[in-house]
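User: Hey, my collaborator sent me this sequence without any context and asked if I could get a structure. I don't really work with proteins. Can you help?
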Amino acid sequence: MNRLETVQPGRGPRARLAILYGSGLLLVAALLSFSEPPVQSLIGTELYEFRHLFIFSLAGLTILELTALIGRTVIRRRSLYYLIAAVAVAGLAYGQQLLELTHGGGEPDWRLATRNWIGALAVLTLSAGLDRSLRREHGWLRGSPRKVIAGISVLVLLFILRPLIPVGLAYAGRDGAFPVLVDLTASWQRPFLELRDSELYTGVPPDEWREAPHKEVAMVMFRPGAGGSVIINEPFRDWRDYGEVRLPVYVDGPRPITLDLRFEDKRTPDHEQDRYAGQFILEPGAHVVVVPFAEYHQGPAERHLRIARMRRIVISASGPPELFRIFVGRMRLAGTQPD
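Assistant: No problem. I've predicted the 3D structure and written it out in structure-token form, which is a compact way to encode the shape of the chain:
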């Protein structure tokens, strides 16, 4: 009896053209996204350090599909497409460093070029492990070898991109701690902090603070005079369901201090003091600073804070002419939004 066999078609020019257009668009998007360093974005700053790796990886995939589309009548073996893409990416990685030497006036960083090339090469080998056409061309790629190549490629990428892991954990800690906005004792908070004329330590609260909110609190040491501050970038940005901000503070010393709190949203220009800035004169001892929703919702520039898009909190203090310190608990949102 005759039997009809179904032949699965290979990936044709239309599919390759679609992949080419997709990788090309991603490449253009990457070039536009990394045209300049991001402003006050922790994840954006870290990704910017890897911008060339992402760009060269997308360029390698684009060259791969372009070669497959244009040169398929001359180059019959798909494995050669990958070789051409790998060589082209090496030229981009090391050529970029040569441009730094000839036009940028800087010193080439060959180690960085090698990292970028290996990372882009790992993306190409991962693509090769998932490429059915390549498996049909080379039978030994079927089964375990394909999985091993894909696994090694993923491990190489994870090793190169490992600085992004603590950043991801910081964002996860921030989101998990909400409605706590500032936790100056937890490790997840540290990447978001900037210290200006101040020092930050973690320890037990003073014995005199009988109603200390936690067994471990932050101690902020300010230099003499005004200007010392702790800046918290990228707090959890949506505050709409709460009615007030609460901050436990213990002033250590014989003299009162002036504590300033400033909240900024995404629309606040860096050069303008166009946001809520509360000033509190605190005597020595324990306090709970409360900022009602109505106060931080309305800024001094006659516009409402966009409390669904908050971007920064600034805690600053001025006090006696000598070194002074305060103990700070967790700043958190509380209450409910007024009608």
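In plain terms: The mean pLDDT is 79. You can pass these tokens on to your collaborator as they are.
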